[in-house]
């Protein structure tokens, strides 16, 4: 039987945290504070010790029932196919060589090694100051995250640069790759794409080299050089060619992909692929992962080279059918979207897509990894349901499940509860204890940040609030999970329920079964 226990400010329910009566009814002494501290720590440690989160979980921002999903759409890169860290190293290595050979950067840069733990996704770069930083959901710079090269920037220097820690909405809330504010001291770029990690790492590494060797440089010029070079590496097809020529090295195994798609097909669901990648690259990757040359038979429509997010906003880019042998676009107007085993398409736009398929509204679930290019427009403007694939989740959840992490988190929450309740004590002996708790709080928060990433912490949260990345994730994705494979754990009738979170003005609610 389900019992509902409302944790009120005072009352019997708080006895499980060591309360015998309301704080206002008892005299607080140093001894009672320390006793309360020990009781809270012990209780919370016991509670957290038995709690784990499965890395295969699918997390829910807003309620979604798979029963009513008739159409499943997929991105390709980092969705249907996941890449090994070797791909990031490949992009980094080829880009650094081109910077030296073609743009005259110092020869020493060729010896740099890609460090996958140097940066995280979702960071912002101020290309005028050369600062790489993390933002919270409320547009505040996280001072402990601001680096120039590998060096932490003095917090006061950051505050002086921006007139505080807050970045205005018109600068932050841009849906394009680069954000510029006329007359502002900031020029921000946010890195949301997994493929952008080598670009950020290379910018940071070169910045550090130039700074440490007292070589004068303009961060904006460096950024433009790195950005253009990485872009050219992609456009050259070197990365794609290298991947498909050695797929075992660069593509993660996904044995459940074919069963997953087959299950959808057998259930009568419509399936489409909408990707910015070219078909030859997609085809060779899918053949490798599914171990089947007939994987196209599972898709009702395949659109490659879609150029998202332009696909969602343009009305002047018609679909072009691809010749099955030459892969050259047809000159004939596309009047229908035929099954993928018969015809492939390139370019196009969302208006024509909806008109030709009739797939619209909340019966469509689109799954992708890029919050803006893949998910923002379908979610905000089309009414599609969306699911974000966030590979970083797996590593973060496994770290959060460790006993060390849970012990530190339990201690932090206990200290924060105590500080909230005892912050206004005027007695010097009590103030000494609360001062000690504040220092302990700062230490715990730093530990938890460093546990995820020594420089930037978690991709999902700051010390005080969700990250700006998390804010966009909550806004654009009904569901999110670490891998498409995790959906195999749920039936096609499953309803995903979001966790009910109490609003600040509501009482906390705890459910005990």
UniProtKB/TrEMBL annotation:
* Pfam hit, one: 5_nucleotid
- Is the Metal-binding keyword given for this protein? yes
Identify the residues that bind GMP: 77
Kindly list the positions annotated as binding Mg(2+): 75, 369
What keywords appear on the UniProt entry? Hydrolase, Magnesium, Metal-binding
GO molecular function annotation: 5'-nucleotidase activity; metal ion binding
User: How the cofactor binds, per note?
Assistant: Binds 1 Mg(2+) ion per subunit.
Q: Which cofactor does it need?
A: Mg(2+)
Active-site feature positions: 75 (nucleophile), 77 (proton donor)
Q: Does the keyword Magnesium apply?
A: yes
Family as reported in the entry's similarity comment: Belongs to the 5'(3')-deoxyribonucleotidase family.
Matching PANTHER family: 5'-NUCLEOTIDASE DOMAIN-CONTAINING, FI20020P1
According to UniProt, the name of this protein is 5'-nucleotidase domain-containing protein 3
Gene behind the chain: 100634924
């Amino acid at each position: 039987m389900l019992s509902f226990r409302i944790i009120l400010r005072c009352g019997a329910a708080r006895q499980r945290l060591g309360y015998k009566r309301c704080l206002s009814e008892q005299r607080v002494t140093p001894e009672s504070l320390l006793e309360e501290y020990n009781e809270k720590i012990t209780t919370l440690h016991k509670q957290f010790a038995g709690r784990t989160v499965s890395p295969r979980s699918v997390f829910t921002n807003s309620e979604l029932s798979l029963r009513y999903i008739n159409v499943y759409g997929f991105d390709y890169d980092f969705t249907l196919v996941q890449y090994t860290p070797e791909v990031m190293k490949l992009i980094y290595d080829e880009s650094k060589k081109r910077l030296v050979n073609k743009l005259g950067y110092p020869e020493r840069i060729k010896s740099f090694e890609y460090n996958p733990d140097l940066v995280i996704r979702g960071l912002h770069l101020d290309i005028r100051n050369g600062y790489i930083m993390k933002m919270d959901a409320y547009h505040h710079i996280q001072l402990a995250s601001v680096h120039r090269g590998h060096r932490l920037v003095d917090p006061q220097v950051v505050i002086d640069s921006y007139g505080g820690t807050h970045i205005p909405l018109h600068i932050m809330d841009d849906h394009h790759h680069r954000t510029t504010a006329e007359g502002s001291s900031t020029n921000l770029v946010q890195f949301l794409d997994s493929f952008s990690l080598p670009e950020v790492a290379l910018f940071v590494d070169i910045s550090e080299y130039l700074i440490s060797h007292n070589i004068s440089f303009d961060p904006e010029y460096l950024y433009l050089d790195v950005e253009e070079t990485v872009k050219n590496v992609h456009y050259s097809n070197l990365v794609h060619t290298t991947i498909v020529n050695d797929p075992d090295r660069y593509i993660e195994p996904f044995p459940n992909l074919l069963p997953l798609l087959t299950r959808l097909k057998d259930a009568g669901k419509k399936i489409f692929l909408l990707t910015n990648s070219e078909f030859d690259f997609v085809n060779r990757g899918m053949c490798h992962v599914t171990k089947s040359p007939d994987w196209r038979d599972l898709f009702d429509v395949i659109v490659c080279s879609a150029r998202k997010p332009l696909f969602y906003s343009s009305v002047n880019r018609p679909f072009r059918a691809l010749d099955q042998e030459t892969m050259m676009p047809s000159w004939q107007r596309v009047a229908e979207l035929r099954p993928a085993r018969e015809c492939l398409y390139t370019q196009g736009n969302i208006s024509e897509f909806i008109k030709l398929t009739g797939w619209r509204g909340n019966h469509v679930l689109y799954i992708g990894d890029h919050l803006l290019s893949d998910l923002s427009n379908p979610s905000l403007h089309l009414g599609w349901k969306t699911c974000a694939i966030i590979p970083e989740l797996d590593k973060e959840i496994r770290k959060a499940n460790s006993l060390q992490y849970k012990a530190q988190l339990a201690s932090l929450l206990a200290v924060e509860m105590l500080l909230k309740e005892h912050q206004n004590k005027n007695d010097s002996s009590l103030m000494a204890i609360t001062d000690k708790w504040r220092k302990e709080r700062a230490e715990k928060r730093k530990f938890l940040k460093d546990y995820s990433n020594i420089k930037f912490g978690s991709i999902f949260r700051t010390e005080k609030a969700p990250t700006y990345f998390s804010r966009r994730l909550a806004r654009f994705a009904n569901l999110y999970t670490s891998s498409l494979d995790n959906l195999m754990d749920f039936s096609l009738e499953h309803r995903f329920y979001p966790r009910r979170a109490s609003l600040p003005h509501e009482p906390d609610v705890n459910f005990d079964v």
